[in-house]
Write a structure and sequence with these properties.
4 helices
Length: about 160
């Protein structure tokens, strides 16, 4: 196989993976939000369900970080390949903006708000646990919408 064909094949595989990854990520988010967390609260004692949901969200947060970084790298590779082929593909395109927005929602919603929720459970801080839970849920919903838009964008033909 000539080097040019092999390079095109690798580029095509990376592009397909870049388009598939947001759909998998969106599925993961929907599974946690619509299946796993409600099932925990429907079948377990409230305190155990809360710890279970917290553990699921923690695992999901670290996975989100890895997925966002991977997607940002793949978007950069796609921009470089388009530039080399003489095609328009801005370095700061929709894919990068949507991914960066989802990454921001992850960092703000989990790594900033969650510690505040733990303090609020103990009666500390200016906001109640319910208020912080609403903020965290809002970040999760916005992130899911951004990832869904990213997945939808990936269905466009190249």
């Amino acid at each position: 196989m000539p080097a040019l064909e092999r390079t095109r094949g690798i580029g095509l595989a990376l592009d397909r993976f870049r388009r598939l990854l947001p759909a998998l990520w969106a599925g993961w988010l929907l599974c946690v939000a619509l299946l796993a967390t409600p099932a925990a609260f429907a079948t377990l004692e409230r305190a155990v369900a809360g710890r279970t949901a917290g553990r699921m969200l923690a695992q999901e947060a670290y996975t989100r970080l890895a997925l966002a970084v991977l997607l940002l790298i793949l978007e950069r590779v796609a921009a470089r390949q388009a530039a080399q082929a003489g095609l328009p593909h801005p370095a700061l395109g929709a894919g990068v903006i949507l991914t960066a927005g989802a990454l921001f929602c992850t960092v703000a919603g989990y790594f900033a708000v969650q510690p505040m929720m733990a303090a609020a459970r103990e009666g500390q801080g200016p906001l109640s646990f319910g208020q912080l839970h609403a903020v965290s849920a809002a970040f999760f919903i916005v992130k899911a919408a951004l990832v869904a838009a990213l997945a939808w964008r990936g269905t466009q033909t190249a």
